[in-house]
Amino acid sequence: MRLVSPHQQVGQPILQAKGVTKRFGGFTALDSVDFTVAPGERVGLIGPNGSGKSTCVNCLTGALTPEEGTITFQGQDITKLAAWQRARMGLVRSFQIPRPFNKLSLMENVQVPLRFALAEAPPEGSANRAMEILASIGLDSKADWSPKDLSQVELRKLELGRALAASPRLLIADESMAGLSDSEVDEIVELLERLNADGIAIILIEHIMRAVMRFSQRIVVLVAGKKIADGNPHEVMRHEDVERAYLGQ
Ligand SMILES: Nc1ncnc2c1ncn2[C@@H]1O[C@H](COP(=O)(O)OP(=O)(O)OP(=O)(O)O)[C@@H](O)[C@H]1O
């Protein structure tokens, strides 16, 4: 279990982004965005296609370097850290399109991030931990299966399991539910709720509004690279600018 960082003060956000700006050539994809997440909080990040959600996540996780702004995680400035360093601190993402190793079993797929994402992971303990993770995502009975033989919803769970192997304090779940049926969406929401109940803060990026409204304690809305709303889900969704930009899509 990862200990709380000695840099983080009680009551401080686990993540704090200030004035984050990302440009691609002359185009500003993210425009001076402020973003905070409290420890253990569930935040929905929404916005129309092309509004900057992925760019924001890429800046937070280190896949992209913002031109301006600062990002603090557990009280430490991580703006200049590489993605793997942020992951080792517990800032972890899952990807919209799972890309598991099809030649490896589910168990081995979870062991890969266990061995390499965690600085302190003892390889000899990784089999037990991998089984615990597979049990937490409901796939322990299929530990020796290939990902090729999984359904879509099981693949999404495996992707979340691979992220869990890095012991996140903050998990960014990027469109984990796209293309799933209503009951499968509920399964993923329930899984995310269980992970959150274990103390993991979660940013949910999702177009399925039913899931966002059910899951989120707070919603942040991006439109054309700018944050236009941030607050209580029901109040945010009644916000005139959000209705104009977002609803009816
Ligand atoms: N590498 C890049 N080079 C140039 N423009 C980019 C690049 N990445 C993103 N953009 C542009 O930045 C804007 C924001 O894109 P981004 O992918 O962050 O939006 P999004 O909200 O995640 O969209 P979606 O919901 O469709 O995933 C878009 O106009 C996109 O075309």
Automatic annotation (TrEMBL):
Domain ABC transporter positions: 15-249
Pfam families on file: ABC_tran
GO cellular component: plasma membrane
Listed Gene3D superfamilies: P-loop containing nucleotide triphosphate hydrolases
Any one GO molecular-function label of the UniProt entry: ATP hydrolysis activity
InterPro entries named among the record's database cross-references: AAA+_ATPase (IPR003593), ABC_AA/LPS_Transport (IPR051120), ABC_transporter-like_ATP-bd (IPR003439), P-loop_NTPase (IPR027417)
Keywords: ATP-binding, Nucleotide-binding, Transport
Protein name: ABC transporter ATP-binding protein
Species: Aureimonas fodinaquatilis
